[in-house]
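User: Hey, my collaborator sent me this sequence without any context and asked if I could get a structure. I don't really work with proteins. Can you help?
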Amino acid sequence: MSGTSAGSAAAPCRFAHYFVICGIDTETGLEPDELAALHRWLEADRQGRDPDTAPAGENFEQSPLKRTFKSKVLARYPENVEWNPFDQDAVNMLCMPKGLSFRTQADQREPQFHSFIITKEDGSRTYGFVHTFYEEVTSPQICSAMQTLYQMHNAEQTNATSSSSSSSSSMDSLASSLDDGYSPTSSSSSSLSRAAGSYDSSRDTLYVSKALCLITPMPFMHACRRFLAQMHSAVIAATTPPLPLESYVYNILYEVPLPAPGRSLKFHGIYEPIVCQRPGPGELPLADFPLAEAFALLGVENLVQVFTCTLLEMQILLYSQDYQRLMTVAEGITTLLFPFQWQHVYVPILPASLLHFLDAPVPYLMGLQSKEGTDRSKLELPQEANLCFVDIDNHSIELPEDFPQFPNKTEFIQELTEVLLSFGISANTGAPPRTRSSPGSTSSTPGRERKSATLRQLEDDGRNGNLAGEELVVLELLQGNATLERLQALTKRTGVTVARVDALRAGVKSQPTEGQGNQIGGEEEELRNAKLNVQLREVFASRFTTMFADYESFVIQSAPDLESWLTNREQMHNFDKASFLSDQPEPYLPFLSHFIETQMFATFIDNKIMSQWEEKEPMLHVFDTRIDKARLYNIRAPSLRSSCYQRCSILKESAQAIEKRLMKIDHTAIHPHLLDMKIGQGKYEQGFFPKLQTEVLNTGPSINKWCHKATTAQRRKDRHRQQTEHLTLDNDLKEKYMQEARSLGKNLRQPKLSDLSPAVIAQTNWKFVEGLLKECRMKTKRMLVEKMGREAVELGHGEASITGLEENTLIASLCDLLERIWSHGLQVKQGKSALWSHLLHYQAREEMLAQQADSPAPHILERRKSDSSIAMPSLRVSLIQDMRHIQSMSEIKTDVGRARAWIRLSLEKKLLSQHLKQLLSRQALTKKLYKRYAFLRCEEEKEQFLFHLLSLNAVDYFCFTSVFTTIMIPYRVVIIPIKKLSNAMTTSNPWVCVSGELGDSGIMQIPKNVLEMTFDCQNLGKLTTVQLGHDNAGLLAKWLVDCVMVRNEITGHTYRFPCGRWLGKGVDDGSLERVLIGELVLPSGEDDSARACRTPPLQRSPSQGRRISITSLTGRDTKLNSAQIQEGIGEAVNNIIKHFHKPEKERGSLTVLLCGENSLVAALEQFFHHGFKSARLFQKTVFVWDFVEKAVAYMESADQMGDLQETTEAMKMTCQSLCHYFNAINSTSRNIGKDGKFQLLVCLGARDRLLPQWLPLLVECPVILQMYEDTAMLRDPSTLNTLISVLETLHDFSITLEASLVKGINL
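Assistant: No problem. I've predicted the 3D structure and written it out in structure-token form, which is a compact way to encode the shape of the chain:
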């Protein structure tokens, strides 16, 4: 085809690829819109009715003037472009998203402009710019058809009024909001007609919509808008245009090139020249949609919130009557993402036939046209748990719950507001954002409020440039007054400014200059818009330059070449997230930890890695250049880790670059000229767009200067590629890898707009199912790898790679994934959370069955038992019980919150997979709630999904306990004596106090002769210690306790607190109270193989073995040698140092490291016991505390005798401190026994940095000769010095002791 060859070489550098005309095909006449019929079929399917019984064909309930009819692409020039094949269905659908609309002379027929975007499956974009106007219908057949339809509609109306109307389903409003004709501005016009939507062919003139469209490779919106407006002006003008219209179309298609980067271009419209410019290689990419309008429509704060949702890849739905507003906001937001790019479904204008895409269980950014007067509360959307709803016309937004704020949001908004004000634009439009948790967020507005809202909207709506009513009147008066206009022009020339008028004018939205005249005003407006656009974008770009100034340091370059990188892409870690986060200021973390998990960030890092082997992606190139420049000026270094706000410093330069280009035009395109065409065809008739001559417009010029340059460059590129091809991968294979690598983690990137048969929709849903399964596999794998990586560190392998913050982010994203899976293919949506809705259905059903059977709801016995099964009664596993726990939590107010809490609880209990399996086992319920294509009804995928979730049982999560810190939790305590009868024989009154990371229970009396009790208490977090004691009353006041078990009755976590000692006077070390250190118990039933692959226990308490070997004759053989003891001390100190190097929120319990197994106290006890003459035959056991007591007594007597006079002042102070601490511990009211006192002395000495000073004093006491062998480590000077230097390393940290340890000590 000649058209193909004509433009092919030039296409990449042509300004426009196609000129398209859409409208009514007079030959086929009025056809009902097939897409509207498909839409009704989808609606029936969505509502669970049989789609095949949906009414076919005509819809007579609506007035024919309000109905949609099929539009067609009437002509396109050229026929095809090799580089950008013409997609007829998509272009037709987006040029006229509602099909044809009809009007009569009584209706408003203002021309409309809107733009659209076609995103191909590879992510490349083509832009369309559409000018829609109304043309008189001259075909008598169409007029009579419309008359007939109107009569049938009247008859239908008469019948309908007699019969009652049927009830509408929850999804109908979504349909009805899209059934109206495209009339964004027809607010009051309908009142003009005699009867709304009436038509009588004898007296009314019928008009039909027609669209002129330019399809371009780049978004030159202003230029295209002006060209199309001039084209329309030429059609309706009384005089014929200077040249035939073909000349202008031919000129823009073939003779106007794209401006070169960094250059401006002037080309000629019909009446006046049009100027456009393109940013240079170091500037922000081209964006021509007016950002000022997006800010005016939403308000600065709302826009920043929507921008944040976009960065976090939530589902974003824009809602407006006006297509161009949808496009302006969508393009505005995606433009501001630089250097990142939106990676998911992007449909700024969603045609009615594609409504099922709102079901997509993936992140999306879509625009939905609203019907005038449609109430938001009636709009039921398939899923809202993670939705950001943007009501553009009412300037309001609704945000998802649990939404992190953008860093430095207040200062950021302030800076943007100042930029807007400097251009005279008020920035405080927009209602305050609402989150879904607010109870009234979707209630309908009462009449009076709605009325005032409408008045307000009319007065200072974005369409009126956001000026208040009074100012607008003044401006209109000034604009309409020729004298004032001349006066103003004069003042401008003489350098005087009329400030008030300028400020007013600055507030007005740019309008395209239509017709002749006012050209200078239009160009000034365009320059102002371009300058404002770039300055606003620079403020956003500057935030990212600051936040990611050091991102390169954390990129992991692990592959030797592109091929191996692409092959192992899925297994590789490309970015050191933990280190990056640890380097960021604390306030940034909630946002950044979510953002670095997104697909857009992953793609950005992938592009960075690939730039080693291939040309840098342009946006990355610009971003890296900016970072290098900032580094050159050393902006970042002093503010590292500082959350200080840095303002953008290049606003002036960026605006000047644009001004310079627009003021001094670099290139002027060839003028339109007469073409070699037949005379007399395409006769001019005012008000009608002529039929253009195809032969002329389908063939471009045979040779063209700039097209020749481009082909030479292309040939050069091709040669280079062929030379390198044999060195690299086979190109096709590489391309395939590239696509796979780029699409990793994405589900369905873009819906296909053209083919919309039910089979294609089914295939789309199948892609969703596959995508969800893949996402689930990757998320669970990531959670496991990160968590196990962290615990491997605790076992001494490698480096930690996850933070508590990051873990929380991963769990939040798992909750989001489950919500998306549960909302895929829902029959009818109920409530904001699809998962919680399903759980409630299940609960109601089970409770009903239980009542019928008159038995409690089914329970499965949980395997969670303590080691001695007689001790702790088993906890029942019950999905319903876990739901009741969540339902009783008054802190959670919304269904989405309840679903997330339930997921966290199930994950912590290692029951998530089991619970969901049980939920889905009720197949009748699943069938009732879900359509046949839903993820939850795909058996094989569902099984794999549950298996992936089961893998999470391999690690321990505390994601419920650590998040819901204020809730009341029931705890169960069981005391296990060594001798069965020892508790029953005790006459004393026992008590217990349980402590955790979040607080303690207070002292609770245990009823006499009872081994088990339950108590309710505010969440204690992970449990750390139990204090157990009695009051020594009665004759049998001795108690031998094996251990204490404590269980959290909601999460099922059971802790064991080993004791293995006596409590009583005159037995063991005389203690009436012991502080026991806890360890988390493994659920029994996990055999050795399961233990091998699960997490290491988080905490360990001192084992009986250790305690007994210290204090009794048994177990003496297990004594360690000096090397082992020194190693134990080193390890204990090392663990404490590691503890302080972790982020504060992730440190866990210090008490365990001080007093548990392998702790500092345990290691020092071993040290003091080495060579200790403790037990002599027929004499009572001697404890280390006895040695300390004698040493202190010696020091005190020496002090009184004056023997310490010769010692240094420092030595004297140390002596006094040791005696002071010893006496404080000895005189405490607590009966903690001798070992307990020694433990306390070590802990206090470590806390107050005195321990290394006390040791030499103890060694120098003569008492040591009586109580220690010559070989004892304590008597070896070099060993002692080593110990002192090791203990001194703890002085860098401030040790805080748990209240349960230091209670009652008065220093």
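In plain terms: The chain has a mean pLDDT of 75. You can pass these tokens on to your collaborator as they are.
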